[in-house]
Please model this.
Amino acid sequence: MTIRKRVRLSGRVQGVFFRDSARQVANEHNVAGSARNLPDGRLEIVLEGPAEAVSEVVTWAETGPEFARVDAVEIVDEEPQGLRGFTID
Model:
């Protein structure tokens, strides 16, 4: 079953290789989606794929890469849209 989640993270999430790390982790789990910095300093990651794989990437994102500091996580369930690959915006 394919699911889709939009994850918004706040804290020290920009300028710490979070987007590229998210792409790598998503690719390792065969999860499609995207990552982008938001103007308010947060990071937004969209994830689409098998429920267990998406859950694994979300769990990773709650901590992020080595130099990140995640203070808050907002997760919104959405309807899958058939994404392929992972892009960084």
